[in-house]
Write a structure and sequence with these properties.
alpha+beta; three-stranded antiparallel β-sheet; about 130 residues; hydrogenase (acceptor) activity; single chain; 2 domains; two-stranded antiparallel ribbon
């Protein structure tokens, strides 16, 4: 008898087809994806798990939220700017800060440049 696999509150059973991708490559860290697919090739349940914990939640606890960008950009050695911009936008949204349109355009150009850089590194270097 096959037992369902349970992780993080989700249960993946053996009904239908089960697809497991382990490890997921081309990412920073370790990741596993599991998916249940029914007879119509529709995903009925999916779980992804990662094992890397860097402790940034603990480091940032009690700090000024405006300082978060300097820490979270070190999550990944390849996409530092992306994590910094995302952190800044999250803090601005949480504090209700509106930025000028020109600043948003500059950020979008930075993000597009980082997107191209990230793809070049992942497809041709790693």
């Amino acid at each position: 008898m096959a037992y369902p696999y349970q992780t993080q509150g989700f249960t993946l059973d053996n009904s239908g087809r089960r697809i497991v991708v382990d490890p997921v490559t081309r990412i920073e860290g370790h990741m596993r994806c599991e998916v249940n697919i029914d007879s119509n090739n529709v995903i009925t349940n999916a779980v992804s798990t990662g094992t890397m914990w860097r402790g940034l939640e603990v480091i940032l606890k009690g700090r000024d939220p405006r300082d978060a960008w300097a820490f979270v950009e070190r999550i990944c050695g390849v996409c530092t700017g992306t994590h910094a911009l995302t952190s800044i936008r999250a803090v601005e949204n949480a504090l209700g800060i509106a930025i000028p349109d020109n600043a948003n355009c500059i950020r979008n150009m930075m993000q597009a440049t980082l997107h191209v850089h990230d793809h070049l590194v992942h497809f041709y270097h790693l």
